[in-house]
Amino acid sequence: MNSKTAATAPASYPKFSHPREITNPYLPLALLKQDILQNKELRVERTAKPDVQKTFNVGGQTVEALAVEDREYNSSGDLTEATLDYFAQDDDGNIYYMGEDVDEYSHGKISGHGGAWLFGRDTQHLGIVMPAHPKIGDKFKSEDAAPITWEADEIISLSESATIPAGPFSNCLKIKENASDGDTEYKLYAPNVGVIEEIEGKDPLALQSHTTK
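RE: above sequence
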């Protein structure tokens, strides 16, 4: 750890007794088997990987994260990126984003690992992806690993509705995300489901199917 990181590291961390039991109703990853999200240009296969073992040292605690894999395919069906995202829920019900391992693909071969970061290696700041008791106006960072990446998030609604291929949804939570690359994205989270829509531009990435264990 360099001196700059040490100086800005939090004085204390939350307690994680059962970090893989992610039961927050807006992102119940412990129940997820697979989500399929798609628009005209992109298809994402989001699959829980309970057999993947990934642990983090968080303030002296050994925290075992739950891994979720995103495999992204372009409109031609070519794999462009495979990412393992790591999540953990604290004892209060907040979900933290612990980092991601990234494989970028070109012509069927790994071409890079852009955007990869891990808590403890690249940052001492936990990224919070979903508060335990979200309220309109809540602000947080789901990624806080500058200069690699950062993302500033704000909850802007708890009463959104959407009709998408996976069905009609109501009482959805909406988050505005401002990323380090300058992009702004909106995500809708349906109660007891998780992410149902990712909105950036005119062609939202919408949930096609949601499979649980």
